[in-house]
Amino acid sequence: MEETNREAVATAVQRVAGMLQRSDQLDKVEQYRRREARKKGSVEARLKAAIQSQLDGVRTGLTQLHNALCDVKDIQNSLADVSKDWRQSINTIENLKDVKDAVVQHSQLASAVENLKNIFSVPEIVKETHELIERGELLQAHRRLMDLECSRDDLMYEQYRMDSRNAHDMNLIRAYFDHVQGLSDELAKQLWLVIQRTLVTVRRDPTLLVSAMRVIEREEKIDRRMLDRKRQTGFIPPGRPKAWKNRMNEVLEGTVSARIESTQSETRDSDKMWLVRLLELTRKYVLDDLVVVKNLVVQCFPPHYNTFQLFFDLYRCALSARVQELATEKLEANEIVSLLTWVLNTYQSVEMMGHPDLQPECDIKQLEPLLPQEVVDRLLSEYMKTFTSNITGWLRKALETDKKDWQRDTEPEADQDGYYQTTLPAIVFQMFEQNLQVAAQISEEFKEEVLKLCLKQMTSFLVRYRDEVVAYKEEHLKDRQLPQFYVQYMIAIINNCQTFKESINSLKRKYSHSTDPTPNDAAIEKTLSEVAKEGCQFLLDEVFLDLENHLNDLLTRKWLTGCHAVDTICVTVEDYFNDFAKIKKPYNQEMTAEAHRRVVVEYLKAVVQKRITFKNAEERKDGAERMIKEAEQFSFLFKKLSAGEDTDWLCGSITAIAEVFKLTDPSLLFLEVSTLVSKYPDIREEHIVALLAVRGDASRDMRQTIVETLNQSKPSISTRSSPVFRDITVPTIATMTAMAVPKLLK
């Protein structure tokens, strides 16, 4: 305490010293004193209040502790009294055992008395119940059965309470009521017959179906009550729980499965369309049955059974099991398509589960698939394998049929525009179209896969087609008289290439949503172009085989003296091109251009082969004029065949050479040759030398000078038109000798 006083004094001294640091603060001493006195009084008041509050709390706590102590003593005394009374009553409880036994016996006797009427009349009730069951009065029969079971169960329960280990009495009761279980089984059998024929019964006698459902509901309630008593007492009557609702579901499941399986009345051996018929019957049965369930059966079942969903699930499970069973069989390609189309499309369509009569209870968006995806993938894979094998065989057979047509003694058919054609493109693409239509019924993705396979097979087929066309040409060359309509069928083959292109593009537009090129597009386009180009080449070869002798007469002495080789050439070409007019664009245009080029090239070959050497100016003039005239004939002919297109470029080369021959002043020869070279820059040195040799009046030095001068100032090759002289070779002396020997031998 003294230490505290000293600390308080020291603190006060410091506080006062802080207040009186300046002289002007001495005037406020009284003010400071009053202020500190007020603070002191306030602190003392708060301290007194706090102490008083603490004292009140302590006083209250002591009072409560005193009361609790008194209560504990009262409880202790009461417990002592209870313990004393309990000890005194033990002997009394032991003396009441006889009373307890009497109470149990009284309960049993009361139960027996209560069921006495039923006990004595059990045989009679059994007989009545049996008759009611036979008459189909299910509710009345079940009422009797419940009375019998109630009597039996009450007696057995009392026996169980009295002595649960007394099996003799239990068996005695069970034996007395032995017929009750038989009645229960007989009633259940009738119920299951009604349930099995639900869809028929609900139309003919819905009351019977309602009665059956009421019986099942009664039994479900009794089952629940018996199970509750078992949890409380451990006793449950024999035959419980009956679980007739579960049994009803099993019966319905078996009925639905049998209904689905009954749709197969035929096999593949008796009818190739067996699966289509089976699936259509299944669709009809399921739709009709579910409509009946929705409109009639639902009204006969308790609402909490969710009847439509119950039947819907049963039918879905039965359908799934059935189609999975079908999927395990060895199905043909068309059967796989029928099954998958039905499973993936028909099942969810308005023809079946999406039918308006099933809405809104049936939500097709919530339908589970009938087949697992791996089964679908397996079936699609099997179909693709079979389809690949089949389409290869179909294409091979179609090609063999077309090859036989090539040998016919009649012209090929013509389309509406008069173009020759064979049936091959129509057969092939009809085949593709049918399979794509089938694939489209399954899914868009599968349709794309089938289209890719068709194009892939088309690629291989066109390679074989090309080989057969070449073989056809080779066989014809062995005897040009056979086949009789070789030219016409070769024209049809060329036209087929264009038809193939158009058909492929049509298929892609119709059955593919993708605009990206497929890996097979380039190969198909290339092969078709090659077949058409080679076909045109074969036809031109045919023309030039007929023109060979006349071409050999060009630029010879015979020609100079007035032969009609060019007239014959023009007539022959025009005659052939009357048939070639039945070639479709663009091949007919390309063929005309190629024929024009080959005629001119053959003519120029005749010039550079030096078959003739002009002896004088008169011969040169006659020859040049004849060449100009024949160039005009060629130009007129091919302008006519090409519908007025420019023909001057090629025929102009003949005219330009004629001008070289026609020139009378050798000193101007260089200029004329220079003009020729400027027009046709692909002309080579050996060509010029050959031309000068044919002219006959150019000396070796002049030829050398002209060639060297032209080589120094030779223009670059123009890209304006295709080269004329590029493919023309000038024969050497050895070549000329080799060419002359066969003629001498002739």
Automatic annotation (TrEMBL):
Query: Entry's Gene3D superfamilies?
Result: 1.10.357.50, Exocyst complex component Sec6, C-terminal domain
Identify the main location: other
A GO MF term: SNARE binding
The GO biological-process annotations, alphabetized, read as:
exocyst localization; exocytosis; protein transport
Q: Which GO terms describe its cellular component?
A: exocyst; Golgi apparatus; growth cone; membrane; midbody; perinuclear region of cytoplasm
Q: Acetylation: is it a keyword of this entry?
A: yes
| Transmembrane residue ranges | none
* Signal peptide range: none
- Indicate whether Protein transport appears among the record's keywords: yes
Q: How does it assemble?
A: The exocyst complex is composed of EXOC1, EXOC2, EXOC3, EXOC4, EXOC5, EXOC6, EXOC7 and EXOC8. Interacts with EXOC3L1. Interacts with BIRC6/bruce. Interacts with MYRIP. Interacts with SLC6A9.
Name by which UniProt lists this protein: Exocyst complex component 3
Q: Which species does this protein come from?
A: Electrophorus voltai
